[in-house]
Fold:
Amino acid sequence: MSSITVTPSEAQKHEETPELNIWEEDYVDWRKRPAVKGRHGGMLAASFVLAVEVLENLAFLANASNLVLYLSKFMHYSPSGSANIVTNFMGTAFLLALLGGFLADAFFTTYSIFLLSAAIESLGLLILTLQAHVPYLKPPTCVSNQLGSPCHKVGGGKAVMLFAGLYLVALGVGGIKGSLPPHGAEQFDETTFEGRNKRSAFFNYFIFCLSCGALIAVTLVVWMEDNKGWQWGFGISTLTILVSIPIFLLGSPTYRIKTPAGSPITTIFKVLASAAFNNRKAKSSNNVVISISTSSVSSDSVRDVDEQTPITPIPTQNLEFLNRAAMNNPNHPELKCTLKQVEEAKVVLKIFPIFASTIMLNCCLAQLSTFSVQQAATMNTKLGSLKVPPASLPVFPVIFIMILAPTYNHAIVPIARKLTKSEMGITHLQRIGTGLVLSIVAMAVAALVETKRKNVALKTHMLDSSEPLPISFLWVALQYLFLGSADLFSLAGMMEFFFTEAPMSMRSLATALSWASLAMGYYFSSVLVSVINGVTKACRLTPWLYGRSLNHYHLERFYWLMCILSGLNFLQYLFWANRYTYRSKIAGEQPPFKEQQHKSDLVV
Structure:
């Protein structure tokens, strides 16, 4: 046997290695070297992510909040047409977060996906800035009171330019939304109480920073768009997203970056296919020799939670039909799955009903950037001598969120922890449930306010007038307040819930489900508008949401329908939430993947 001689310098390196406290092998620094505890990660690294989120959301929301008016006034789309374009645009942007999350988990990293996505969004905003600045690239000005000068909506190459810019922005926004939140959350050590506590605070302050960007967007930038021209709004957004790139890069020496682990979706489909095949095989033959594969359970599963926690390789009893995927079948070895893969697939399947339950809430939130803005545009928007742009209405819920987010983190959660004697205090599902309840209240308030607005228009004989109605736009601010509160509870709750519950190999993709829920909500809003108009027209009634004047819409009926649907959605959410078992381990409790897991404890 050959002998190995260790030089003093090598021996010194081996002695110093434990002192470096290297993170798990899943994490590296920006130069792809092993990440070191104390040097990489922590709140300092996450603070760069929070600063970037202020700028990123400013760039996105500055245009999204006012886009419906840009499309109707300058591109000459109808109110419902403008609303559908905005909801489709925002829906696509949020849905593409799944692509960003998937690429970050499987092939690239959250670090590289953010940089690429920011560059793409900058290109899209540059195209929109150019179109807004050059009159030739827009349709002719519409003079509605002049005969022979009808309004022609944008078409041809100008429309191509408009939608190319919009959907390049959507692609960039999707990549950023899918990579930035998990990149920040990955900076904390989840094996310690302090790390989990700081990670929970990070998600709250992520919403806070998101609101800071929104505050600047719906005040300063929207004012610039309405008074100085849309080229200024798009230009400021372009500059802002460009500035966010060097700020993000400044934090590079402090980041710990999770290495990609291959496609998690492939593993899930493999488990489903294996379970289906083995279940069918078991029914057709009673003599099949099978055994449970437990290889690679101990190391990988333990690392997901705590390396010192022993995990018994026994499959859980929920979704039992998937357990057969962990059985060896000599005829098809390519379908062999480990118990770890089976349990991770179970976790993913169990969070989908929760994900589906939040879509209706986000359908309600979609109204903030569509019909609610158009409502305010028909009302008196003056506060004394100051004329407030309708698209600045979100300032009310934004300010409320900025107050509530730190209050929740520093006051409500500590009190809840003392009362419940649990680490979380208020569970993720309780937060989401609170958001659902607030969305129901918001839709009821919106219906009542719209009824009042229509009555004022009727009594003053201003149904066909383009002049502002003698009613303050602050009435519409009520629904913004409730929906803004719902957004705070639901979005922060969803992001932390999906991140902590998902397997480590697909955390970026799982966190992107929060944005995908928003996307589905926006798409569902567009579908709902089209279906309602189609049904009411088929019944030989006046379509509820059709025409060029909002005063002839039956918007109050639409809001009442949303209220009823939200109530039914909340009931089915209770069904799934009360049966959900958390995967994430709290110190001192049983390990995950066992039946002694703590229940969701959703209190209503």
